What we know:
Elements: E1 3-8, H1 16-28, E2 34-39, H2 41-44, H3 51-68, E3 75-79, H4 85-94, H5 99-103, H6 106-111, H7 121-135, E4 141-143, H8 149-166, E5 174-176, H9 208-216, H10 233-246, H11 250-256, H12 262-290, H13 293-319
Parallel strand pairs: 1-2, 2-3, 4-5
Helix pairs in contact: 3-12, 4-7, 4-13, 7-8, 9-12, 10-12
The structure holds ligand 1.
Amino acid sequence: MKKVFSGIKPSGDIHIGNYLGAIKGWVDSQDDFDNIFCIVDLHAITVQQDPKILKEKIRETAGLLLACGIDSEKSVLFVQSHISAHSELAWILNCFTPMGWMQRMTQFKEKSEGQKDKVSVGLFDYPALMSADILLYDTDIVPVGEDQTQHVELARDIAKRFNSIYGQVFNVPKAVVTKPGARIMGLQKPENKMSKGGSDTIGLLDSADDIRKKIASAVTDSDNEIKFDSNRAGIYNLLTIYELFSGLDQGEIEKKFAEKGYADFKKDLAEVVVVDLEPIREKYNDIKESGEIEKILEKGADKVRPIAEKKLKEVKNIIGLG
Ligand code: TYM
């Protein structure tokens, strides 16, 4: 079976962008692959975090992945910092990564805009750690949203460069992006991708009322015409969300709302989202109460540790460390 690795940051609230762009695909293809899913807490600290909240968010993220349908019997779920090989390999990969490659990373450019001298070195180096995550496990497929594809490309380049010097050490992975859903945009700023927190975002744990309010106030335009037109960012994004939650195709959706205005469409959209997220929220509460999360994460770390340590040992040996 092909090997899948993907990760999610336990910072902010996990939102429907994460769900539609990544998590749903992970859940749906669990039987087809050998899966490892990682809660990347070391990536979260590239910006400052409150220690108590970070610890809670790691568990919340794990609980939510399980509530969305990640089955710990079929897929490994673990916390990045539980496996020290990730940090060690990241350092080694740093030494094989030209600055120029890193300087091209658009996510760093966006995140550091206007504050280049203040952001952490870790934020700049983020893609090297991500490469280590992926390359430690001989990953074939990395299912991600569109914003992460450049980072996966970098992991490929680093793997190829390393292999060209030392022979076939790393498997060269491939990003897989699920479309539509690969780039869910913000509700208030549909020109930017939805990101964790605020009124731009629908969190998986948002109450039904919050979801209704957020969708009702989502930015659209004055055309009041319900059509999939990618030039009209706001309504296009809402229609994409509708498409993904309802399972209807674009033609069916346009027909359904042909005689209706934005207000009616938004009401329907809110209900479709609420109906799908409600069971996730309920399941999350059950999982949290069961006290199982900690055990699942420990078991996950125990499963991946030998794989990661073996690869790290091979790498250290081949480059002459120790
Ligand atoms: P993170 O935590 O930002 O996001 C987790 C996953 O959700 C996707 N995503 C989106 N998809 C569609 N629309 C959006 N608005 C949206 N926002 C986020 C992301 O593309 C991602 O797939 N660097 C990664 C985590 C990571 C990782 C890895 C991923 C660390 N190591 C190794 C894959 C392999 C990140 O910050 O994801």
